[in-house]
């Protein structure tokens, strides 16, 4: 019975598909005939334009001659294949009659036959399937990036994204080499060398080999305080048997790092393990970060917030911000003030945000991040979108003396120079920014437009 039903369905389906090709009145228009019709229509329009006085007779005649010349060329290249339209229709019908049933039966026997074993949801490894799809996507992304970088070899963001994608695919050696390739564009960026060293470390299955060591040493030469370089070079010391020296380095790093740094959990585990091996007492080391780590909402706060009204939830957020603000007034520290500035910016209290960033900047001399954040908060707090606060420009100018490639500073100082009529200096700053920005970014488009407007001024 089932095969009778299948046969009827197939017959109906094939009949619907081939019916248009059986119509005797079916007319096909060749490209040649279609082209001639277009030219004839253009001639008719010329005649109407002349009759209505829109176009002069002489101009119309010259256009008409050109159109007729094109009609002759088209007519000389008639498509001989059009005559075989009925034969083509017959071939299409035969193909449909054969292919549709065969393809349907093949799919049915492969996927839909009742004799096939079922795949109940409970017995399927959904996570493995997701991982497989994710793997396909990441592999496709990697291939796309490789092709793009062939034509854009100076795209730093592209090299970094490719390196991270390779690392996610566990192609660690390729990732490390890609990070090193990126250092050709940014030779003074310690993060790139740490990224390279870390992937060499993963490739060596948790061993700091010679390649990883060289990368971490280069990062340390560029920034002696870089946490990644310090952490892994301490791993190297422990690997060589100098566990006590490694432990001292990790403890120093722990004390000098913010409580919410992403590596703190791993660092704490390393310290506990090394302290156990050496018998060293670490006392209340980990308790020293407890105050800093309580600035965010507790689990009880999160649970309570779920049942609150919008006003009550806002009141709870305000209370937490006030607690952080009070603590920063009593015992200010750089990380806490930077977090306070971010929170105020999120709440759109830009004056308070600028004040917090300014206090953080006062604690750490010549800190580019704090100065740039304060400058931008002052711009956001300004009522005028046309005039940039002089304090912001002064901060950005100082930033450029410390980091000549800071994007925000290049943009806003360039705006100030253009407003003051110093076009050449504005062009110099914006051209530099244009070279730093990725070509597919909004920043690149904005600065390119500004350069063009200034040149056309």
From TrEMBL:
Main localisation: other
Top-level lineage group: Bacteria
Residue windows of the TPR repeats: 156-189
Domain Cytochrome c-type biogenesis protein H TPR: residue ranges: 121-262
Record-annotated membrane-spanning stretches: 6-22, 91-109
Keywords: Cytochrome c-type biogenesis, Membrane, Repeat, TPR repeat, Transmembrane, Transmembrane helix
Location relative to the cell: Cell envelope
Gene3D superfamilies xref list: Tetratricopeptide repeat domain (1.25.40.10)
Protein name according to UniProt: C-type cytochrome biogenesis protein CcmI
Organism per entry: Sneathiella marina
